[in-house]
Amino acid sequence: MATLHKEKILFVDDEESILDVASEYFLVKGYQVFTARNGAEAINILKNQQVDCCFTDINMPVMDGLELAENINNLDNTIPVVIMTGFPSLENTIRTLKNGVVDFLIKPINLNQLELCLRRVLGKQQLYVENILLKKEIESKARIEALNLELIHKIEDLQTLNRIMNDFSSITNSMNLFNRLVQMVLEIIHASESVFYMINETVTRPFAVAVASAENPGMTLSPIDMINTAGRIPNSTIMEVAGDQTPLLIPEVTEVHGLSSNISSVMMAPLRIRQRNFGVLSAVNLRSTGPFTEKELYYLSFMTHHAAYAIENLALYENIYQNLFSTIYAFVKAIGAKDSYTEYHSNRVTAVAKVIARELGCSAEELDILNTAGLLHDIGKIGIRDEILLKPARLTDEEYAIIKTHSTIGATIVGQLGLWEREQQIIRGHHERYDGNGYPDGLKGMQIPFLARILSVADVYDALASDRTYRVKMVESQILDIIRNGKGSFFDPDIVDIFLKAYQEGKIQEALHCGHCLHDASACPHNMTCGE
Which domains does the chain carry? Predict the structure, then answer.
């Protein structure tokens, strides 16, 4: 039978599911529970009920959690407020600590954690009230200073948690994430060494995939050093942590623990994805350093928790990205079915554009963007009627006006796929002219996206160098003269100079030699990554 409590709890959150679960859980525990979907509803409850503790989200309609905390502080500054948020920030922390906020909980929050927090808050409530009175009356300077110090530590803790989350959010592949994870252990926990061991249903024996040492920070360890570092903790201990699914802290290592003799303290935390083992993260202090603490164990567990989310997101992103690239090639093939010239033209233009981009010192990210935009720059032609697109004679003015819409049609198609905002801009702008007389927007000079200016030169070069149903290709010298004479009018002068230099050095010709298989790297007869 549940113990009856006289304490009244107020939960404020715009997510009905959170209110329902929390309410049911604490009612069963014997507490009196009130719920509100925003700060305004909560204020109405507080006007009629004496509440002992308030748990509130930050982001809510009508009145958010920050404004609610301020109102509660003005209404009754003895009511402790606990903030529940998935995105803590230093600005929000400072603002709320002045308004009766006594703790922060990082979402997602399990109910046991919520109950522990409630007990702690209620246990300190009387002391909290006394501190408020003491602060007002300035009767105990020492206690006020202790409270301020506690708030400073709380801010430092939140800054650390924010740093962990922000570091993971910028990582783009799994291996970098594992390496960043062990480096983070050195930087935040100040461990001597850290190892991430892979262990799951497939890898049943712990396998070290990332190792970091404070003796060589930021450096890749030799295979021998990696083996020695990873081997300090027995496989049986790692397996035990993974099996128990519970973090382990050994503040002071003794012979009983069966660990390497030069280890003074060790922590380990399991990393689980969707309730399944994925790995174990370890932190080791050697004899020359001090013991780990419960607070550092919390940081280690927080790292594995958010690393798990990051790994899931990476896997999802990589799957989505692969699906989108499959969509790209389906579009390219669809154009090829209507007009084989357009398909192979896109491959050749991409190859030439990437040569120019490399000569200009473009980044790997820019090359990837250019590769996608190059393959799809004429994708809008899929929306042009066949009798115009495949006409064997020169187009009339009306027909040419319709053909010109392919850049906006293509940008719209790519915009529907998502993720490719820059690619969309390049596709829309690849027929803009440097002097502002291009289409569809009449952009001029630096208004035209940089990569679109590169693609424009490559596009014109291949168009002039290709046979069409209504004309034969031009000779190379004539094509180069046209591009050279287009400096400052049709084209960016700097890009033309780089193109001509690359052509003279044979780099353009070399790229085109492999351009026919750009859309299918596996078919490349030169064992090259096409366009490289």
Answer: 8-167 (3.40.50.2300), 175-302 (3.30.450.40), 339-523 (1.10.3210.10)
